[in-house]
Amino acid sequence: MSEHQAGVRNVAPLAGRPVTVLGGGIGGLAAAAALKRFGAEVEVLEQAPAITEVGAGLQISPNGARVLRALKIDPLAVGDPAQAVELRDRRGRLVTRLDLPGDPGFFLCHRADLINALAAAAQAGGVEISLGQQVQSVTLGAGAVIALPGGKRQEAPLLIGADGVRSKLRGVLNEPAAARFTGQVAWRAIIPGDGGAPVAQVFMGPGRHLVSYPLRGGAIRNIVAVEERTAWAAEGWHHRDDPEALRAAFAGFGGPVPGWLAAVREPFLWGLFRHPVAGRWHDGQGRAALLGDAAHPTLPFMAQGANMALEDAWVLARCLAEASDAQGGQRAALERYQALRQKRCRSIVAMAQRNARRYHLHPPVAQIAHAGLRLLGLLAPGLPLSRFGWIYEHDVTA
Does 213 qualify as catalytic in the annotation? Predict the structure, then answer.
């Protein structure tokens, strides 16, 4: 049932329903905005002192863009329509180009712009965003009880954990599961733009690859560079590194890459870790549920982390809105939410894991694979992208 149809049946099926959301990131703000559209009274608890996100790019694919539209956010207001993805070898030579379809299309976004748009949509609907709320622990009883600094405790009849890979709620619902270092690290950086076309370029080399695309109309350029290595690196996006280390790792790359890397002043380095998808996304009593990275952390090799969180947010709100008001309706809604989302998210996470080293082939395998891609691009240019139709064509708002 569409959002419009739900509104026709019942203008505010969640009218007055109190919901607390942990986390003011993409998933948390999207969930808050979606729940508010169905009438819930939503508070977001965010640990940071302000709703901000340091510079980083992301890609919104059609499945995520459809959710933004349902939330009354124009994707064009948060990103630039992407024309294509170009796969190039380490010297910069084109291997193949994948032209991207429009409507709703793919968008190249600065993470901060998406965060700001979601926050504005949530607040315009009346969502309360409480900043500086460092959650100490979560316990579940008749409802959820959130422990905050200074001995403060806050009760929540329904708690949504959108608080990332270190989620306090995930630890309550699931047994601890150790993350595994993938043997890969990633640098990210933002450099001044060169006015380039809105095209994502992937430069592939032995044991490493680099992805770059322009943001904000070409005013800035996003760079993500991945290297295989045995040395462990800390997880998280906020560890600064020496730009010379990045330049040394990609010293053999050609085309525009040397110029881009010469402009890098402050790269951030993080280790890529494989986390299991949570086995339990809700508590079984209708009191709490997980969303986004708290439920299904993913590697970045399908660019689906933000898109999965947007999908989660809409499906969770829709399931709650469509549930019976009778006792047990909220529990059934959370069960339905997990049933609708878990298998799909597992499949996307697995696809990202398999995709991890396809850009890192060594000679002579690399030359053979690149020749095959060139030929495929000539004979069936739409075929490579069609492999991911099950991801991009999915519409959770329909």
Answer: yes
